[in-house]
Structures are given as structure tokens and as C-alpha cells.
Amino acid sequence: MASTTIPRQTQVWRDPRAIALLMAASLTTMANATISPALPGLERLFGEDPNAGMLVRLLVPAPSISVAIFAPFAGLVADRYGRRRMLLAGVVLFVIAGCAGLFLPDLPTVFASRLVLGLAVALIMTAQTALIGDYFTGDERSALSGIQISARNFGGLVFISLAGWFAAISPRLPFVIYGVAAVFLPLMWKVIVDPQRTSSAPHACLEESSSDPSSWSLVFALLVLLQAVTNMIFFVMPTQLSFFFAVAGCSSPVMTGSALGILMLSGGSLALLYGRVQRAIGYAAVFALGYGVMALGFVLLALAATPLAWFVAAAAIGAGYALVSPSFVTLALELAPIRRRGAAGGVLAASVFIGQFCSPLLSTPLVATYGYEGLFYITSSLAAAMAGAAVLRAAALRLGGLSCLRGIYGKR
């Protein structure tokens, strides 16, 4: 078995289409957080605007709002008119809208450009997810789904670090980082093509389910809901961690940046192994393990009182998220019919950003009522419940014998 799996993983790395899709994946993380280090400077720069305090803080989540609104519609367009044109158009729009903050004259127009940037991200994420399903199957698809999480984490770490240096020079300068997408465009233009739409489902039962919308849409809807909840849990870290450190008496940008850096590094590193882990233990066990590790991380945050323990907790949460996150893409692509992969990718992308957007709306009242320890315990309990459900699912699959659902969720 080892001799058959290793070449498949190396083949993904060698495929220029995979490289182009990983480049696209790295852009999605860049969209929101790249300008975070520049926010205080932007507030000072546009201080004459009476709404500066509010608008500046909305610059980071603004793209998420657009992705949540437009991604499902982008999926329908991708299914009708093709993925290539959507991906290339999204990258071009990403460069234009992302870099617009360099020269736009006032804060409202900068905010509008961030909304347009979200539309670009919706186009990119939708097309990229559908193309992964079009180009790759089986182990290669699982491996690439894990690698793209690494690309997002490591790309985010590099881009945010660069933004910090650029923001020290000028609050407008971090907007130039969005121009990196223009460097990726030639390779995408060369290697990304719309494949012929022929049925290539690896399992007969999947082919049958793809032909009947009612046989896959309910499971897909549950998967989308689970991904939204997962991202809502995970986004507690970037939205609440700095305030938690302030209450604990360790507030500093370095402390928060270090913890989030460890979060991304641990997640990005473990995601590289996702394909091997998934093949070894199956989807249900991956969910159980990932949510269990996240639950332990949040418990440690609630109990710990030292920076080292907080860093370990951040690493655990990042690792757990990296284990479960790729499964949403691979499962959705296996569930959705070939002609509906664009729509599935769009809805999947929207669920990520809906979860991120809802996270502070739900977690902030919990902090006001129960404090940060209470928030972490509640979050841990939710993750533990999801891990328990996955354990029950894995046990049911083992007892149920061979079936179509085992083929989708169980150990291959």
C-alpha cells in the first residue's frame, strides 16, 4: 500500500494545475487580515471622517460579508459558464480592488473597495473548489485539500508579517501586498482549463446519488451547517484572544501575534499530513480526532495561566481545525454531482465566512455574561459534543458493514 500512496502525493505537487490552485487558495486568507496591522494608522489618516472609528474596524470583515452573499450565486455562474473564466476574472478583480486602498481618497470608498474584494474572493474560492473536484479524485483530491489549508495558513502568516513591516512605513502601503495576485495570474492563465464534463465518480453508489438531488442535498446541507459552526468556533481565537490576554494582564501585539502565529504554523504543518491521516483512519475518525483536539485546546485556554500553556492551547486548536477543515471540501465534492460542483463550492465558501462573521456576534455576549473562561468552556463543550457525534458515527459505520454511506464517510 505504501508504494501506491507516496507517488500519488508527489504527483499532486508536480502538477502545475495543483500549484495554480494552491496559489489561489493563499489569496483567500490574504483578503481579510492583511490590513489588520494598518488599522490604527488608517484611523489616524482618515481622522477627519466622523465615522472613522466604525468604518476602519469594518474594513477587515467587509470582504466576508460579500463572500457570504455572492458565493452561492458565483457557484451557479461557474456551473453555467465555466470555472476558468471565473477564476481569472476573480484574480484580476482581486488585484484591482485589493490595491485600490493605495490611492482612494476617503474612507467610504476604501470600504466599498473591500466589499468588491469580497466579490473577487467569492469568485476565486468557488472556482478553485470546483476545479479541485474536476481535476483530481480519490487520494490526490484528499491530499490537495489538506495542502490548500497549509497554503492558506502559511500564506496568511507571510502576508500578515509583511503587512506589519509595511504598516510601520505607511498605513496605505499594506494594500500593495494584494498585487501579489498579479504574479500568480500568468501560471493560472496557462494551466487552468475547463475540463470536459464526463462522469468519473469513483464509486457506483456516488454516481447513483449524484443523479438524484434529494439523495445528496440533505447530507450536503448538514455538511455546510457543520462547516459554519466549525469556523464559528475557530474564529473565537482571532476575534477574542487579544482581549483575553488584556484581561489576563499580558496584553501586547507581540503576545497576540505570537499566539496566532503558532495557531497558523501548527495548522499549516498538520494539514500537510491530512491525506495520509484520512486514508489511515477515515473521515469520521478524522472529525472525532480534530474536534477532540480543539476541545482540549479551549479547555487549556480556560485553565492555564501562563503564556507557554496558552501557546500550547493555540497550537492544539490550530491542529484540530486543520484536521477537520479539508474534509468539508473532499466530502462536498464527492457528494455533489459534477454539474453542481460550482454551486456546491459557492455554498461551501459562503458557510466559511458566515461562520466567521457570526463568531464575534455570539461570543461577545457570552463573554459579557460568563467571562472568557466561561466562553472557552462553552466552546470546548460544543467541540466535544461534535467529537462525540463523530465517534458514534464511526462506530455505526463499523457495525453497519459495507454501504454507500460507508464509502463516503468511512475508512477507505
From TrEMBL:
Pfam families: MFS_1. The chain crosses the membrane at residues 57-78, 85-104, 116-137, 149-169, 175-193, 214-237, 243-273, 280-303, 309-331, 343-362, 374-396. It is a multi-pass membrane protein. Gene3D superfamilies: MFS general substrate transporter like domains. Residues 17-398 form the Major facilitator superfamily (MFS) profile domain. InterPro entries: MFS, MFS_dom, MFS_Efflux_Transporters, MFS_trans_sf, Sugar_transporter_CS. Residues 1-33 form the signal peptide. This is MFS transporter. It comes from Microvirga terrae. The lineage of its organism: Bacteria, Pseudomonadati, Pseudomonadota, Alphaproteobacteria, Hyphomicrobiales.
